[in-house]
Design brief:
mainly beta; about 170 residues; three-stranded mixed sheet
């Protein structure tokens, strides 16, 4: 039985005990018929009471307390990727960005959209979708994974002005 964190879309995942190496080569859609899911990142429960069940509509830590690796799964069980949900930023590999101490400046590698702009892992209207955080932008992220939307923050000895999530050094 397949359990744990799996990626069927070719994305590398964070190092975690929840990832089973023997399933790292999975590719393409999973399931059959009406229950078929598009390629993506999913988590199949390791708990005895629901072993192998697809986790939906929640955020889980597949790491440890000391080294957390958070993923958030939508109603279909797919991990959010390049999405902003409740001021938490989930990157290209589905992993929630978070700082190791205080606030950290991080660069967004790909366009980030609001989670509500997605359906089953794809943008609802890709031709008209506008990223909430464009690729190449810098954001400030807290230890709890919150991305600062507005205001001023001092990080690494530099004061940043944040507007619509984008951080720029204050002049």
């Amino acid at each position: 039985m397949i359990t744990g964190l799996i990626s069927t879309g070719g994305k590398g995942l964070a190092n975690s005990e929840a990832i089973q190496d023997k399933y790292s080569g999975l590719k393409g859609d999973i399931g059959k018929g009406k229950g078929k899911k598009p390629a993506g990142i999913y988590y199949l429960s390791l708990e005895d009471r629901n072993l192998g069940s697809l986790i939906t509509d929640r955020r889980i830590n597949v790491g440890t307390t000391e080294e957390p690796y958070y993923y958030c799964f939508d109603g279909s069980g797919r991990a959010y990727e390049n999405a902003l949900l409740n001021n938490h930023l989930y990157g290209d590999n589905g992993l929630m960005l978070c700082s190791r101490k205080n606030w950290s400046l991080m660069e967004v590698e790909k366009d980030v959209y609001l989670a509500k702009d997605y359906t089953r892992g794809s943008l609802r209207d890709p031709d008209n979708a506008v990223p909430v955080i464009p690729a190449g932008s810098q954001v400030l992220v807290s230890t709890s994974g919150i991305v600062k939307k507005e205001g001023m923050i001092k990080a690494g000895g530099i004061t940043y002005k944040i507007s619509n999530y984008i951080a720029e050094p204050k002049e």
